[in-house]
Amino acid sequence: MATLExxxxxxxxxxxxxxxxxxTGVVLSARAIYEAAYAKGLEEGRAEESAKQRAxxxxxxxxxxxxxxxxDEAIPANPQDLDAFADRNEECKLVLVVRTDLKMGxxxxxxxxxxxxxxxxxxxxxxxxxxxxxxxxxxxGQMKVALKCTSEEDMQMLQAQALSLGLNAQIIHDxxxxxxxxxxATVLGIGPGPVSVINQVTGQLKLL
Length: 208
Description:
Layout: E1 2-3, E2 9-10, H1 12-70, E3 92-99, H2 106-127, H3 132-139, E4 144-149, H4 152-164, E5 169-173, E6 185-194, H5 195-202, E7 206-207
Parallel strand pairs: 3-4
Antiparallel strand pairs: 1-2, 3-6, 4-7, 5-6
């Protein structure tokens, strides 16, 4: 046993009580710190999830706006040229050339590529519905390849070259409600057409 200067004797029971009190205080403090950190983590997690959800909703809304903006803005191909490859029994594809200089978001690019695909398909159905090329492309899985170019001038040159070879070539123009200016040429769709012929136009381009 220990004795203080004032004559208070520190018995084992007193020492145990004091020690237990100190330990309890430490445990309670640690628990309070843990609970505060846990609550803060939950709050930050909810905030991050909420921000992510808002971003996804904004992107979905943007894609829905694109559907209304760019419908039927493609340039019709020459009807006499679309069935020029009926005797070429080779694999067919559709190429989507995206302008990277516009810095479009992923959702925007996906929506514009969808417009270009539909525009090319509708042009083929309108002007060459019985085309063997179109039927081969449909039966073989509708191969699509996304490529990139860096300017509207390059895109227009590619379209002119494709049309000169008798290919279906459609440029999509955006209405400008999100991200980019109204009338911007966003994606060029070429085909469906024989792989070897389309490669004469886009063979030098890099994948998106």
